[in-house]
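TEACHING EXERCISE
Course module: macromolecular assemblies
Task: Read the component lines below, then compare them to the predicted structure of the full complex.
Student: A.B.
Group: 4
Components provided:
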Amino acid sequence: MGDKLILYYKDMSPPVRAVKLLARFLGLDFELREVNLSKGEHLKESFLKLNPQHTIPTLLDGDFSIWDSHAICMYLVDKYAKDDALYPKDLKLRAKCNQRLFFDDDSLYTRLRDCSYTIYRGGKEISQEKIDRINSSYEILEAFLASDPFLVGNTLTIADICAASNVLPLQIFAPLETEKHRNILAWLSRVSKTIPFFDEMNVKIVKEYREMLMGLLEKNKQNAH
Ligand SMILES: N[C@@H](CCC(=O)N[C@@H](CS)C(=O)NCC(=O)O)C(=O)O
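Instructor-supplied answer key:
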């Protein structure tokens, strides 16, 4: 490997955690550069030069800059993994993996962001409509997992890593239900068993994320009076 990989990150960000989890799974080392979003560090000119979309995670590999957790995961497996298991090269499997990754971004992550950004922007409640939308995403995920143990067949791929990173914090707003979400719950525990450090890298930080969001929501409610 040439230059050291640099990751612009913040651990509370679910897409960042997906990339960090994958990197650890692949045995890759990053130089970590924390970006303080609340101080607007992602809007500074130096960061915008790397990523005009001003999002984290952003990865720098030498002079190559790439962002969006899904695109980063695809790149890391293609470039650094010893085989294609986590992002299959087989045309149909790759198409299916891409479809799940786009679902993760478009549905799971978007719905999580709809709730968290409502709170960051001073909202005093999360509407039932937003919670219903999360539940419809769960319904679709439940269907994906009806016939396969992982999102793309029998083995773990980056689609599982990305989606699981978002489903954990989504439960802050819409808890999974034992009867209704059997497949998702079984899948989450399968993903956690397959990645030995999955819980270590997620449980504590998601708890802190929950406390931070609920604390802010409470403050927003107080400010209303
Ligand atoms: N689809 C993107 C989402 C990235 C994203 O929106 N990250 C948030 C933090 S969780 C962010 O950087 N927000 C700052 C902004 O959008 O300006 C991904 O998967 O990387």
